[in-house]
Amino acid sequence: MQQEVRFSSKRFFLTLMLCACSVILLQNGDVSQSSSFAFNVVCVAVGLFICFLMFIPAAVIKRRTDADVFTLLQGRSVSALRAVAVFYALYFIYTAEFFLLPYTDMFCKKYYSDAPPCVISFLVLAGCVYAAFKGINVITRFGIFLFAFAMLTNVLIFGGSLSSLNLANNSFSFEGDPADFLKNTAYFITPGFIAVLFACLSSYVNGFRLRQTAVSLLLTGVKFICILFFVCFAVGAYASRQEYQSFVLSRVAHLGSFAGIESFLTGVSTMSVFMITSLVLCCIGKGFGKSKSLPFISFAAAVIFIIHLAAAYNQSVAMFFTAPLLFDSLTLAAAVIAPVGCYWLIRRSSREKT
Amino acid sequence: MKRLSLTAALLSAVMLSGCGSSHKIETAAVIENVSVDSRGGQIYYTFFRLTGGDTPDGTEIPADSFEQACDLARREYIPNLSLAKLELLMINRDICGEVLKRDIEYISTQSSFSPMAYFTLCDSQTLKSVCENTSVQQLIEEQLALCKSQNADVNISYLSLFNSYSRADSGDVTVPYVSCDGEIRISAIKISK
User: Fold this and answer.
1) Considering only CB atoms, which chain B residues are within 8 Å of A122?
2) How deeply is A150 buried, as exposed, middle or buried, from its count of CB atoms within 10 A (0-12, 13-18, 19+)?
3) Which of A96, A173, A322, B165 ranks highest by number of CB atoms within 10 Å?
4) What does CATH list as the number for A7-321+328-338?
5) pLDDT given at position B96
6) Taking residues B21-41, what's their average pLDDT?
């Protein structure tokens, strides 16, 4: 079994940022159509600020103990570690489905309609098992390449959409009701899952600073706002008629006769989902003390695949695994309540000993 | 042993992905352009296939709407119909009030159509010329791009036309109109929403 090495926190946050950006790439009518662009910007700001707050418990643990949730409990409380590991395993299986289901749906509906969704998820999971086996260090190195590719894609999409930009398509007024605010903000809190990834994997990183979190979320917010802006003003009302609005934006984008930028967006989405799933498998393995065990990772991937199969044949299962509000609640529990509980447990046992 | 099992897993994954059964592109079913005309009170949708020859290969389908025409084409005329490469929708100006808004509404809900594909209104003579020579379709597309560069208000794509219909600012929409009087001419005309 290979040993994990420590690596730069900046690289880890680059990877987390790319994972967070996949939320907007897979957006499918989750942002209210009746709210205006300015209103959505406020929702993005509020949502990502809540995401930032979710980082604080894990950041405090990291700064005080240089450990993550699992290493904090290791060797101190076996029963607590098992309970926490099971909870996080269930959470991460939900997270994998939350991204895998929309991704396969988008791929089959928008890009290649002949492909069966289960085959796509099987191939993605097979790749993720290999990546998780190689370890988090390798996955974050892949993030550097993905960052370059994502930048190229952004330039192509935003640059190519400039010719279709028409400010008359929508207004800059502040329009939206409380229901829209709740719906949109709930959706923009979903990038908070990166706080859970940080809480579970932070023991591998060196040189952590809280401002890295702020910068990552700020850049994520900029990307969200850019996508929302171009969807609002370049695609306009047409976006409300179609599924997966970011994909429609990439279809609209063209530089002269150079079109087909949707292939780039599909590529970035694929790699982002691949990274999320790989990190999730790493976290599940780490919780049970078998971060690089191939049979264990394969078992976790098999569970994810079986749930994906069930979701493919039963719409209610798919809806359960793609509900932003439920995902937010679980993220809140996994990013705030569980780390605070673990830290409190360790502090109490330390006091009792002394 | 590990490598052998990994190779076996990879091969099975490749076979599962559909590479085992080859798929040939059915060029005879790839539609490049569609024209909409009317004769004797019946609307006809003509689907022009992608072809390298000089003579267009069109299939004329009587239908009340583009949606119905697509369904009929798939069921009876062009079984493997593919509209992903549709570049140009040409509508006879005389029936545009009846057809244009309804068909653009339908297209806006379909993920296979490119939002940036062109549409234009035409006179009857142009639609006849389109049926006779493939170069006419290419010429119209070039003229449409030129028309857009000269007049920013004109809506030449499904995307801009749908958005113009959705706006509540004015009662008119500027669209291109192709006429054929010896040579192809294009102009911008206003039609009411």
Assistant:
1) 13, 16
2) buried
3) A96
4) 1.10.4160.10
5) 87
6) 78
